[in-house]
Design brief:
mainly alpha; DNA polymerase, domain 1; hpI Integrase, Chain A; 2 domains; 13 helices; 3 strands; 59% helix
């Protein structure tokens, strides 16, 4: 049993050091595989088990087990992906003869339309953020810059938090983003975002002069203590602004990414271009935003057409 657990540790180290996957993926796979190992211990009982001896029935049973616990189909699919990747690693290293997870289909995800803000809501949001920033307080100026960057570039939260000073080219109006799988992409910035970022940069430089050598000069978005802003602080800063639009809508930083994509496609942007801007590997991921636009057209049709 100890040897089987050691194989998982070797796989996770391989993912982190050789595959260079994101820390979030490594954490998720660590949790998923720990639960999988615990399930196999219960499934096979005192007889024990080996990776070679695990069959498709055991893996299907594990999937059924985690779905019964009430996790989303998206999370169940990620758990299966972790098991598949582990078995690929074991097979490549000749520890198992085959990958029993390969033939198991991923749970079909429930279709949903992502939460996004319409143009009027975005106007209200930016008006509130701009009013706050006019007082010149560091956090308010920073929060407006983060809001502008989220919407202008369609970034994920982790991407925005990871931006360094040298990632931004405010003369060329562009930002270099490191996305999932450490893949980099260049995203253009709008003039309003660039202006907000320049205003914040002057506040950032002023803060670092006051703090001295202990301040983080690499990270672009800082806390008031001069350190890279934490994930929680970033979420709280943006959601406090989003709550001004709607407290009950469940809006998050990711809603701004959805809004960026929806507004781009509504305005006639090419689907492939939006895919590249978002950093999606597959265009199918981007297509959900076309469904959003179609649903809006259907609603407008039903409300306006006499014979709808």
């Amino acid at each position: 049993m100890t040897e089987e657990i050691d194989r998982v540790a070797e796989f996770l180290e391989h993912m982190q050091k050789e595959r260079d996957v994101s820390p979030n993926t490594v954490k998720a796979y660590t949790r998923d595989l720990a639960e999988f190992v615990a399930y196999l211990g219960n499934y096979y009982g005192t007889a024990g088990w080996t990776w070679q001896g695990v069959d498709r029935l055991a893996i299907r049973g594990y999937l059924a087990h985690i779905v019964r616990r009430g996790i989303s189909k998206r999370s169940a699919g990620r758990s299966l992906s972790a098991v598949r990747s582990l078995y690929k690693f074991l097979h490549r290293n000749e520890i198992v003869e085959a990958n029993p997870a390969r033939a198991i289909a991923s749970p079909k995800r429930d279709k949903y339309l992502p939460e996004y803000l319409d143009l009027a809501q975005m106007g209200t949001l930016f008006s509130a953020a701009e009013t706050r920033s006019q007082g010149g307080k560091f956090t308010d100026v920073r929060n407006l810059a983060m809001l502008e960057l989220f919407y202008s570039a369609g970034l994920r939260l982790s991407e925005l938090r990871g931006i360094n000073r040298d990632s931004l080219d405010l003369l060329a109006n562009q930002v270099k983003v490191r996305g999932k799988g450490r893949k980099e992409r260049i995203v253009p910035l709008g003039d309003r975002a660039t202006l907000a970022l320049r205003n914040y940069e002057s506040k950032r430089d002023e803060l670092l002069r006051v703090i001295g050598p202990t301040g983080d000069r690499t990270a672009f978005f800082l806390s008031s203590q001069g350190r890279r802003i934490s994930t929680r602080a970033l979420q709280n800063a943006i959601t406090s602004l989003l709550d001004l639009v709607s407290e009950s809508a469940g809006l998050s930083t990711h809603s701004l990414r959805h809004t960026f994509a929806t507004h781009m496609l509504d305005a006639g942007a090419d689907l492939r271009a939006v895919q590249e801007l978002l950093g999606h590997v597959s265009v199918q991921t981007t297509q959900i935003y076309t469904h959003t636009s179609v649903e809006r057209l259907k609603q407008a049709y039903k409300s306006a057409h006499p014979r709808a």
